């Protein structure tokens, strides 16, 4: 059993399933000479004429270009440059209807030939002494894409360095009417063989198979003659059948191999190039001629001279038709491409591109329009002719029902859109049209699915980002709050320490709590005495209620002082004065019970907290409970200090609070165990009120209250300040004096000196 | 031996439970939208029918008959069928979650499949023995499966066809089932019963 | 007496069957598969909110709990059909006819943009590039056309532009090609 290679070498041809035999109609053009198209007055060069992306635009409107000058650059692997087919001026680069079934506008360069046909400098390459990379670069820069109709970048297809068993040159040209490759081979067989040489250097195949249909005797002879010296270049004649020229079909014909579903021929070791592409490669490497012209079959019974024309890329179709003597009929159709796979042009201004091999301008009789579509009669003729061994009947059934899953399971993707099924359908159903619509829809669905997945990923990433930000913010806030708290605690500790230091550094010897209390009481007694003395000089009416209150208080104070003195002496502690409070429980407390002191401090804290609730500044109240020393505090002095600080804070709070509240807090928050402060404060307040009333009565102006208010607020403040610590007492006294002075300076002319 | 073969042919073709006796039309219409769910339903129903007819025979023979509790037959059979279906559901859920999902609600609805109760009661009526009951149940399920698969394939094509609007969905399905039933009438006389 | 036997017999039968089922329930225990994930995979992930839920996942959860499946315009009939297949229910028609025929993407007129970042915060897929007081621009490839950025813009500089059809994405709508009739001589 000879191996596959031996069989191929021996000239065996296989067959593929299906296929049709439409009338060839090639004799019209294949035996005539190739006409040369004169320069049209405009050339429309689309910037993308291949599968891939357009290259970077190198010129702009108004530039003068030479023949063969690159108009776009080869900046990436899928970019194939386009070149100026002749010298002239670039008029514009604008969207223009494309040579595509949709006729959607694509960027196109409009060139005005200047008639001089001036070439740019050209540099030939000796392929034998050029390395692969340079050869491939030259092929790409020459703008060569597959000229058989698909337009795949040739330098990529020719770039496979290993694993190529066979290079197949596709000279089959199976579609009716088209004879462009036929005449190319008749006249340029030697150049084509040189092109094959170049490809062999790039691909290194085991053998080269040149497939030609048996209805081209002249071309076969020419190629056989040109390949006579090369034992590896095998010219193989295949029976004329449509679509033998399809890539997968030709591979099956010449090598019996099948390209697997979804794969490329390179995966089974085969590279196929159209014969026109091979010719262009030869020209590009040998003569540095880029792809700027090609042979096009212009045929149809409405033309006087149907012939092959060598035309420049970008020539409008109308110009070609006019060259051949176009006499249009009513409702004339002009088809770009063959009768099986071509598409109708919506306007004659569409330009020729690299992949155009035929223009047909038929009469209605020659190529009748399709009749109305009828229902499928399930005859199965379509399945008999399908070269890809598909089931067109099922495919169109599911395409009509838009059942894309079933279409996938029936391998719609393998359809090569050759049109054989539509050709044989007795119901004239446009099968390929349904498949194209379904394929476009499936592609779009796949794209949308991909987009949906990406959108989902982005959405989830965004949610994560927002979560992270929220967390970071929360952590930062917590950290700041902790910082703030520790700072406050630090501050309060500092204050306590400072107060302690002040105590320690004061001139007086270290005093015990009783001593402090005694000291305060002494000072209070002094102040009271002073007040009393002053009160005698003041003849304004003083609320009677205060008087009796003052007297018993004064008496109580004196009694208490005496008691304390006695007790101290008994204790033999270095106490100068003790000022017992009038309340007995306060007396007990002054016996330095630390626990009681702590309790009292706690009570003070509670009062302060209550104050804080009633006042308008919760912030000030907050620190108070916090900064109070622990209930377990046993040092009486520390407790007293803490209580004092609490009072100071409350006082500050009180100052900013509403006026009526000002006088209230002080009596509340003061610890009961020590002071007669409430009384003292009340006394001072009473005095102030009396003064105010007097002034108001005498003045009768609204201005006074405001001025009185300052002494009023100052007075209670003054006694409160007096309690805080000995040093401040003096300050408080000064303040009180100032207030009194101010009060005396009232506009009301006279200070009544009415004796009460 | 031929007796069992004749019984089988009779239940599968001649007295097909769905198209001739018109039992079990619910899952017949409900699951026949897609061919794969129909195949799954066939397997499930076969399992249930065979097992249910066996169990009902045993219960009837050894519990109901001796204790003279014939009047409890329907109740007991339903109990047996419900248990068998529940058991089947659990097995299917475990072994093939895809099938479980595909069948969906129709799996527990086999309980209310009148064909299953019908088989059990007809077994009693025809005084079948143990092996006969099992063959009868198996034949019924094969007949059901055959018709279900045929009908599902047809419905898949009907779904893509250009059906007039009033007929779309279950209507054209029932018309088609009627036509199939007419076709199956052709089997009558095949077995002299 | 016969009633008692009947009751006892049935009761015993029920007990036996119950025991069998109980054993089977333990033996054939199965972890529930996440239906919500399967539904979410079918939804188009535009996060536009046209279904009334704040995103596709909440709608998926609502569907799993029994909500109607025809509320998603971007998913269209295809998604409804898939959901109907998944859940084993009939496929209703799309709830409202507000599906735009053409896919649209947002476009910011940069001359008018003031850099307020409100549209950036609104975009559910972070398809808008920009920062405070810097130019904002929409990344067209990532934009799902959900419309949520148009409202927050204080200067109304965002347009919803239909996607351009290129020959690659043409859907073979032959009727839409403008044809020039060639006069005959």
Main features:
heterotrimer, A: 756 residues, alpha/beta, four-stranded antiparallel sheet, 14 strands, disordered C terminus, C: 185 residues, mainly alpha, two-stranded antiparallel ribbon, 32% helix
* Unreliable runs of chain B: none
Report the portion of residues of chain B in β strands. Answer: under 5%
Largest interface: A-C, 38 and 32 residues
Biggest sheet strand order of chain A reads 1-11-10-14-12-13
Could you report the average pLDDT of chain B, rounded to the nearest whole number? 89
Task: Report the portion of residues of chain A in β strands.
Answer: 5-15%
Report the average pLDDT across residues of chain A: 81
Question: Number of DSSP helices of chain B?
Answer: 8
Low-confidence stretches of chain A: 542-549, 573-592, 616-634, 658-676, 700-724, 748-756
Radius of gyration of chain A: 55 Å
Structural class of chain A: alpha/beta
Sequence of secondary-structure elements of chain B:
HHHHHHHH
Overall form of chain B:
globular
Largest sheet of chain A: 6 strands, mixed
| Number of helical segments with 4 or more residues of chain A | 26
Largest sheet of chain B: none
**End-to-end Cα distance of chain B:** 16 Å
Topology overview:
The complex is a heterotrimer of chains A (756), B (193) and C (185).
Chain A: H1 4-9, H2 27-30, E1 34-36, E2 43-46, E3 64-65, E4 88-97, E5 105-113, H3 132-141, H4 154-157, E6 166-171, H5 180-203, E7 207-213, H6 217-226, E8 233-238, H7 247-255, E9 270-274, H8 275-287, E10 293-299, E11 307-312, H9 317-323, E12 335-336, E13 343-344, E14 358-360, H10 381-385, H11 392-400, H12 404-409, H13 420-424, H14 431-505, H15 513-537, H16 546-571, H17 584-589, H18 594-614, H19 618-621, H20 623-627, H21 636-656, H22 659-663, H23 665-669, H24 677-699, H25 703-724, H26 726-744
Parallel strand pairs in A: 1-11, 6-7, 6-9, 7-8, 10-14
Antiparallel strand pairs in A: 2-5, 3-4, 4-5, 10-11, 12-13, 12-14
Helix pairs in contact in A: 5-6, 5-8, 11-14, 15-16, 16-24, 18-21, 21-25, 24-25, 25-26
Chain B: H1 2-14, H2 25-30, H3 35-67, H4 73-95, H5 97-103, H6 114-125, H7 130-160, H8 170-184
Chain C: H1 2-27, H2 35-42, H3 56-64, H4 76-87, E1 104-108, H5 118-122, E2 128-129, E3 137-138, E4 158-162
Antiparallel strand pairs in C: 1-4, 2-3
Helix pairs in contact in C: 2-3
């Amino acid at each position: 059993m000879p191996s596959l290679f031996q069989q191929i070498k021996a000239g065996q041809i296989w067959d593929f399933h299906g296929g049709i035999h439409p009338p060839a109609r090639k004799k019209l053009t294949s035996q005539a000479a190739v006409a040369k198209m004169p320069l049209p007055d405009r050339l429309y060069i689309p910037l993308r004429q291949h599968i891939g992306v357009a290259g970077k635009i190198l010129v702009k409107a108004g530039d003068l270009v030479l023949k063969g000058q690159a108009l776009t650059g080869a900046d990436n692997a899928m970019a194939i440059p386009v070149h100026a087919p002749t010298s002239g001026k670039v008029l514009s680069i604008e969207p223009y209807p494309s040579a595509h079934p949709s006729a959607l506008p694509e960027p196109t360069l409009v060139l005005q030939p200047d008639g001089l046909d001036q070439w740019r400098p050209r540099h030939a390459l000796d392929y034998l002494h050029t390395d692969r990379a340079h050869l491939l670069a030259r092929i790409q820069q020459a703008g060569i894409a597959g000229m058989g109709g698909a337009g795949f970048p040739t330098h990529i297809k020719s770039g496979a360095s290993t694993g190529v068993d066979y290079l197949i040159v596709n000279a089959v040209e199976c579609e009716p009417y088209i004879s462009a490759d036929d005449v190319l081979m008749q006249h340029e067989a030697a150049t084509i063989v040189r092109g094959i040489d170049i490809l062999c250097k790039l691909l290194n195949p085991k053998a080269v198979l040149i497939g030609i249909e048996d209805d081209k005797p002249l071309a076969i002879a020419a190629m056989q003659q040109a390949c006579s010296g090369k034992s590896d270049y095998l010219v193989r004649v295949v029976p004329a059948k449509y679509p033998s020229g399809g890539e997968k079909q030709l591979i099956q014909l010449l090598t019996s191999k099948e390209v697997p579903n979804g794969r490329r021929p390179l995966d089974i070791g085969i590279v196929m190039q159209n014969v026109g592409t091979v010719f262009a490669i030869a020209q590009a490497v040998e003569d540095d001629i880029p792809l700027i012209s090609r042979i096009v079959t212009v045929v149809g019974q409405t033309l006087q001279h149907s012939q092959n024309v060598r035309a420049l890329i970008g020539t409008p179709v109308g110009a070609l038709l006019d060259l051949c003597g176009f006499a249009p009929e009513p409702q004339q159709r002009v088809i770009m491409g063959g009768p099986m796979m071509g598409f109708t042009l919506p306007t004659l201004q569409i330009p020729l591109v690299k992949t155009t091999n035929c223009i047909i301008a038929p009469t209605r009789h020659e190529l009748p329009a399709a009749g109305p579509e009828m229902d499928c009669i399930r005859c199965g003729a379509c399945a008999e002719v399908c070269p890809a061994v598909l089931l067109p009947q099922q495919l169109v059934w599911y395409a009509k029902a838009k059942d894309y899953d079933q279409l996938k399971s029936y391998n719609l993707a393998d359809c090569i859109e050759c049109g054989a099924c539509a050709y044989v359908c007795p119901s004239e159903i446009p099968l390929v049209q349904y498949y194209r619509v379904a394929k476009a829809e499936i592609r779009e669905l796949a794209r949308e699915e991909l987009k949906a997945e990406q959108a989902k990923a982005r959405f989830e990433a965004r949610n994560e980002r927002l979560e992270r930000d929220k967390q970071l913010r929360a952590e930062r806030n917590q950290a700041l709050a902790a910082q703030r708290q520790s700072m406050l605690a630090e501050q309060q500790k500092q204050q306590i320490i400072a107060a302690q230091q002040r105590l320690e550094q004061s001139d007086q010897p270290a005093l015990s709590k009783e001593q402090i209390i005694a000291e305060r009481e002494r000072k209070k007694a002094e102040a009271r005495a002073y007040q009393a003395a002053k009160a005698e000089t003041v003849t304004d009416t003083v609320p009677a209620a205060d008087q009796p209150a003052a007297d018993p208080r004064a008496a109580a104070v004196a009694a208490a002082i005496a008691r304390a003195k006695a007790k101290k002496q008994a204790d033999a502690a270095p106490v100068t004065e003790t000022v017992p409070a009038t309340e007995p429980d306060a007396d007990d407390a002054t016996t330095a019970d630390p626990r009681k002191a702590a309790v009292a401090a706690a009570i003070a804290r509670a009062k302060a907290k209550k104050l804080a609730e009633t006042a308008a500044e919760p912030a000030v109240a907050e620190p108070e409970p916090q900064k109070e020393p622990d209930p377990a505090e046993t040092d009486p002095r520390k407790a007293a200090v803490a209580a004092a600080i609490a009072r100071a804070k409350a006082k500050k709070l009180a100052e900013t609070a509403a006026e009526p509240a000002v006088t209230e807090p002080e009596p509340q928050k003061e610890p009961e165990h020590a002071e007669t402060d409430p009384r003292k404060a009340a006394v001072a307040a009473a005095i102030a009120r009396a003064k105010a009333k007097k002034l108001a009565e005498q003045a009768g102006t609204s201005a006074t209250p405001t001025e009185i208010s300052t002494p009023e607020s100052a007075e209670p403040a003054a006694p409160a300040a007096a309690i805080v610590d000995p040093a401040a007492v003096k300050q408080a006294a000064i303040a009180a004096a100032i207030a009194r002075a101010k009060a005396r300076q009232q506009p009301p002319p006279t200070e009544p000196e009415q004796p009460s | 031996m031929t007796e069992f073969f004749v019984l089988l042919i009779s239940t599968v073709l001649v007295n097909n439970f769905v198209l001739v006796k018109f039992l079990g039309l619910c899952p017949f219409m409900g699951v026949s939208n897609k061919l794969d769910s129909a195949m799954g339903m066939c397997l499930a129903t076969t399992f249930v029918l065979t097992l249910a007819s066996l169990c009902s025979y045993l219960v009837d023979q050894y519990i109901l008959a001796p204790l003279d509790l014939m009047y409890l037959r329907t109740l007991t059979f339903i109990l047996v069928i419900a248990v068998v279906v529940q058991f089947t559901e659990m097995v299917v859920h475990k072994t093939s979650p895809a099938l479980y999902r595909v069948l969906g609600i129709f799996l527990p609805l086999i309980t209310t499949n009148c064909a299953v109760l019908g088989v059990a009661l007809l077994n009693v009526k025809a005084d079948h023995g143990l092996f006969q009951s099992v063959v009868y149940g198996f034949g019924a399920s094969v007949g059901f499966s055959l018709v279900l698969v045929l009908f599902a394939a047809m419905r898949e094509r009907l779904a893509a066809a250009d059906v007039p609007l009033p007929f779309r969905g279950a209507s054209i399905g029932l018309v088609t089932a009627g036509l199939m039933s007419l076709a199956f009438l052709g089997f009558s006389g095949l077995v002299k019963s | 007496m016969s009633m008692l036997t009947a009751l006892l017999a049935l009761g015993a039968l029920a007990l036996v069957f119950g025991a069998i089922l109980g054993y089977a329930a333990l033996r054939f225990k199965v972890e529930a598969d996440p239906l919500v994930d399967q539904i979410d995979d079918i939804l188009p992930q535009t996060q536009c909110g046209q279904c009334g839920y704040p995103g596709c996942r909440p709608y998926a959860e609502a569907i799993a709990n029994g909500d109607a499946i025809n509320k998603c315009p971007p998913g269209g009939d295809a998604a409804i059909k898939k959901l109907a297949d998944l859940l084993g229910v009939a496929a209703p028609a799309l709830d409202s006819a507000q599906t735009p025929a053409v896919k649209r993407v947002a476009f910011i007129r940069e001359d008018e943009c003031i850099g307020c970042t409100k549209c950036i915060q609104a975009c559910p897929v972070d398809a808008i590039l920009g920062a405070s007081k810097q130019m904002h621009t929409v990344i067209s490839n990532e934009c799902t056309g959900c419309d949520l950025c148009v409202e927050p813009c204080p200067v109304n500089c965002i347009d919803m532009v239909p996607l351009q059809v290129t020959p690659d994405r043409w859907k073979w709508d032959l009727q839409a090609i403008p044809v020039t009739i060639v006069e005959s001589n």
